[in-house]
Amino acid sequence: xxxxxxxxxxxxxxxxxxxxxxxxxxxxxxxxxxxxxxxxxxxxxxxxxxxxxxxxxxxxxxxxxxxxxxxxxxxxxxxxxxxxxxxxxxxxxxxxxxxxxxxxxxxxxxxxxxxxxxxxxxxxxxxxxxxxxxxxxxxxxxxxxxxxxxxxxxxxxxxxxxxxxxxxxxxxxxxxxxxxxxxxxxxxxxxxxxxxxxxxxxxxxxxxxxxxxxxxxxxxxxxxxxxxxxxxxxxxxxxxxxxxxxxxxxxxxxxxxxxxxxxxxxxxxxxxxxxxxxxxxxxxxxxxxxxxxxxxxxxxxxxxxxxxxxxxxxxxxxxxxxxxxxxxxxxxxxxxxxxxxxxxxxxxxxxxxxxxxxxxxxxxxxxxxxxxxxxxxxxxxxxxxxxxxxxxxxxxxxxxxxxxxxxxxxxxx
Length: 413
Ligand code: AMP
Ligand code: MG
Fold this sequence. Notes:
single chain, 413 residues, alpha/beta, Molybdenum Cofactor Biosythetic Enzyme, Chain A, Molybdopterin biosynthesis moeA protein, domain 3, 4 domains, 6-stranded mixed sheet, elongated, binds adenosine monophosphate, binds magnesium ion
């Protein structure tokens, strides 16, 4: 059967359809397992960090007033009333004219508001310390609550947990947090010509590339890929595999059969599912136009192009951010996870208006200058443009291209 594309919609419109799907549910995990995942709760600091004023240096804790104006030539002299250990909670108050020897990380006694580095002091013996440098209140100290004050929201729901965040949670004694669980993503390759990768080369067959690249991108985004293998272009086979994949996953990706040809069965297969709808067929990006968004019940189903390069670009541009969105990440479609490199464009690069282009780019690094970025052209059925590319350059739909010499942003891939 022949279909027509729906009205082709912009990438932004496609994203807003994707945004209508809710995030997967949350689970409680240890903070180490939360790394890379997205918080499902606001985290409020249960305590002040540090819990008391601490020294940042080895030296002497003092009241800055007592060494005001001290210099090498005009030092101040203080009585050393204690030698503190790093794990000690000093239970005395420093009196005027006194100081206390303190190690890095040690807790300041009451009455002290600064630390003078040991390098700027001299122990004269019999408890007298010569202070050769003036110090300002707060100098070389971390104040109580300076890292985090008790009761503050330190991370909001929707925040992606980074390694440094795990460090703060550990410092606050938070062992477990609620995160959105890994979505399960079913992957189906479709096409009569497709064979497994251990098949010998035979004219008329094509080894299944997309299952493998999709699996990498799905798992790399923090979700869990579930492979449903190769399905021939036969509607009943496609329907039964799709039905199983929908039942077992939070999102299903099909590659191949997403266009409008005789053997393009993805639309029909999605439509045959219970309580289903096609939400979009065709998105104004290149490569990647023949992309389908459907739903079966409340689960999203994406029909992706079969062309090896097109599907990789659609995965990067739309599907990986969508997976992050399913994982609860705020602003998943804003490009927050993209690593951009500024470069000088080496050649005029034109684009057809009306569609957003994802041009494969090679970067050449140069000493003391911005890297040079050059487009790599080639058909979307070839693997080599993505193999040679270091990144993608996005040419917006309303732009006809960029000139050689322009400064451009390259999205590293
Ligand atoms: P289709 O969208 O099904 O017409 O496929 C477009 C092109 O992509 C055809 O040349 C297919 O052979 C190729 N193709 C489709 N699926 C895959 C796959 N899983 N691995 C490699 N090539 C594929
Ligand atoms: Mg096909």
